[in-house]
Amino acid sequence: MSEQMLTYYLYLAAFLFASGTYIVLTRRSAIFVLIGVELMLNGANVVLASFSQFDPAMNGQIFAIFAVVLTVCEVSIALAILLNIYRKSRVSNLDELNQIGNT
Amino acid sequence: MNLIDQLNGILADLQGVWAESALMLGAIAVLVLGLARSGRAIKALFLIVLIFACYLNLTNGLRGDILSGSLFLSVHTSTFGILFLITASFLLLFKRGDKHSTEFYFFILSMLTGSLLMMKANSLLIIYLSIELVSFSSYILTNFSFKKKGFEASIKYLLFGAICSAIMLFGLGIIYGSTSTFLVSEWNSETFSALLPQVGFILLLVGIFFKISIAPAHLWVPATYQEAPADATAFMSIVPKLAALVLLKRIFEGQIFTSNHWIYSLVLGLGILTIVAGTLGAFRQSNARRMISFGAIAHSGFLLPLTLIQSTTASESLWYYSVVYAIMNMVTFYLLDVHERNGIVEIDDYKQTSRSVWIGAIFSLILVSLVGLPPLAGFTAKLFLFTTLWEGYSLLENSQMLWYLIVAVIATVGSLFFYLRIPRAIFLSQSTDNQSINLNLSTKILATLFCIVLLLLFFAPQLVMEAQQLLNNVHE
User: Fold this and answer.
1) Domain count for chain B
2) SS3 assignment for chain B
3) Residue B151 domain-assigned?
4) Which domain holds residue B420?
5) Cα B436 to chain center, whole Å?
6) Are residues B162 and A45, on separate chains, in Cβ contact within 8 Å?
7) ipTM
8) I need a surface site. Which of A66, B189, B323, B372 has the fewest CB within 10 A?
């Protein structure tokens, strides 16, 4: 893989991260925010995996696998909490979760 | 080096992680015991695990890089480790029903393991894993009130934390790409002279600042501290925060940036912003626990510069401030919990408590210590902090340090006005419906003991420094 290819992979990663950030900032549903976070994390994973081509030990790819597993844990905790909220109040829109003040 | 040598090297280095291994095994043991027993047995096992981990931590004499550089042990990691384990043992003083106590102590032990590893982390992978271990446990513990508000605080905390950790992971990727190493100890000022690794470093700081609750990554604090159970809050406000500070200190000890670098200015600026946000935010609160949590944000801002200045004074004052902060926060949340159990949640509710003079006086003294007035240890901690900032200003010739000092002094004076709202409500208000609150003797004795310790540390601050020396040299 050449330097040229690396640039393309980094563009892809930046695109994934930016679109994830956009989704996080604009969407109101908690599930969509989680999807946005996933995209951000995957962008970061692409960075790690593409840089690891210069590393004979391939540490970057191993790091990316760890990150994928941790993301799964994070999403499962989030879904469990959302399920509890939905059971109590039938809400999944973050704007309607306003029982506690924010400042 | 052949395989046998490598294996022997790993076996010899394992001594450095025995305490963490004991905590992990203990956490699993707590879960298994929870299948058969609940209540006292779980608490006893929790205490045994903590004492055993304490012993392993004290007898560990390894210092420096271990396990091919993935961890780094120092004076700070061993002494702060003991501080965290002792802090965790104080959680047993909180009143906690049998309901879900197994899972509660399991997650406390996981958070403790994560915090101990976070301090020792030298590889970016360990930094990421330990921060996530601490975060996941905190997200779950926030739910443990099992009320709708608790779930709400928890999902907000989780989404905020997930975004911060995604940003941090992106930063780690950039640092890895431009320095081609995961080890913090291999960083130097040359590899960080380009803009790209500096941007990566800022993104890494986002993840660490989220744990310390430095502005603007402090927004999760009030909701989480308000809705999590009091014992979980006390733990969350002390241990992960101090662990992340020790990690930050280690990263800055590498001298990868000179003291007039823009990253230094940015970090100092954010620290000032944190103090201002915490102090101003506390004025507007009507809920007692929310007010204390804004105070805790301001305290993170006070602690931050101690990680940036490389000197013995800075290390000593970080240790002293951390010990005093741990004691003050633990007893404050303990007293808040005692009052909340009697239905006293808002600051105005404290007007009803004017009959219980003794506990009111003790609570007032603790709050005076949080402000930083003599004759309590909070004053000495602030004094050391200001001395260190002045020293940093004169050593580094960094005018931002002077601004930091000025803001910190003004914020200390300002914090007088919000912390003392609780004593004013207790003593100076004329309330007609005086209900006497239900306090047993052990609560009074405990609170008094904590208060005596804070007084003692004011009159003999060298005790804390001697304790650090002692804890560090026990293994010899």
Assistant:
1) 1
2) CCHHHHHHHHHHHHHHHHHHHHHHHHHHHHHHHHHHCCCHHHHHHHHHHHHHHHHHHHHCCCCEEECCCCEEECHHHHHHHHHHHHHHHHHHHCCCCCCCHHHHHHHHHHHHHHHHHHHHECEHHHHHHHHHHHHHHHHHHHHHHCCHHHHHHHHHHHHHHHHHHHHHHHHHHHHHHHHCCCEHHHCCCCCCCCHHHHHHHHHHHHHHHHHHCCCCCCCCHHHHHHHCCHHHHHHHHHHHHHHHHHHHHHHHHCCCCCCCCHHHHHHHHHHHHHHHHHHHHHHCCCEHHHHHHHHHHHHHHHHCHHHHCCCHHHHHHHHHHHHHHHHHHHHHHHHHHHHHHCCCCEHHHHHHHCCCHHHHHHHHHHHHHHHCCCCCHHHHHHHHHHHHHHHHHHHHCCHHHHHHHHHHHHHHHHHHHHHCHHHHHHHCCCCCCCCCCCCCHHHHHHHHHHHHHHHHHHHCCHHHHHHHHHHHHCCC
3) no
4) 257-476
5) 34
6) no
7) 0.94
8) B189
What does pTM read for this prediction?
A: 0.93
Q: Which has the closest alpha carbon to B183: A49, A59, A71, A25? A: A59
- From first to last of the 476 residues of chain B, give the pLDDT tens digit: 688 888 888 888 888 889 999 999 999 999 999 888 877 889 999 999 999 999 998 888 788 888 888 899 988 888 999 999 999 999 998 888 767 888 999 999 999 999 999 999 999 999 999 999 999 999 999 998 888 888 989 999 999 999 999 999 999 999 998 888 888 888 888 888 888 889 999 999 999 999 999 988 888 999 999 999 999 999 999 999 999 999 999 998 887 887 778 888 899 999 999 999 999 999 888 889 999 999 999 999 999 999 988 888 889 999 999 999 999 999 999 999 988 888 888 888 887 766 678 888 888 999 999 998 888 898 999 999 999 999 888 887 778 888 999 999 999 999 989 898 888 888 877 665 656 666 778 888 888 999 999 999 999 888 888 888 888 887 77
In angstroms, the separation between the Cα of residue A9 and the nearest Cα of chain B is 12
Residue B121 β-bridge partners: B71
Domain-embedded: residue B143: no
Q: What is the CATH number of domain A3-102?
A: 1.10.287.3510
Examine residue B211 and state whether it is found in any structural domain, yes or no.
Answer: no
Of B128, B143, B166, the CB nearest to A40: B166
Say whether A81 and B151 touch across the interface (CB within 8 A): yes
Is B369 inside any structural domain?
yes
Q: How far is B175 from chain A (nearest CA, A)?
A: 10
